[in-house]
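Problem 12. The chain below contains 130 residues. Write out its predicted structure in token notation.
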Amino acid sequence: MLERVYNENQTVSNTYPTLVNRVISEQTSKYIKTCLEDVVASGSGKQAYIEGYKVGGKTGTAQKYKNGVIDVGKYVMSFVGFFPSNNPKYLALVIVDEPVGGAYGSTVAAPICKNIFSDIIQAKNIKPVV
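Solution.
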């Protein structure tokens, strides 16, 4: 549940959400979380893997269009990740528009997310889950 939005070192807004209805079952939510953990542990998001921490996420790679046709060689790479996935507290969405030297969200955006989460781990002194 979203509680605060931060911008650097300050709180931008506080929220106090109220659950109106459940969109998916708890069982489905747990299954999806497990799938997203697998993406990071052994799938396309493994460059966001952090030893000793449970991270979930999903990579994305999209071709860009210009005037209704594929703009050859132009991509948007992305990775959305959350941790600790057993009790999520942090979420990051990394979007890289037309990266130089990379062609996939797994190789461009996932490592950036890993760096963000690693910095949070260090700043907040979050201990590994062993």
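Discussion. The mean pLDDT is 90. Students who got a different answer should revisit the alignment rule from Section 12.3.
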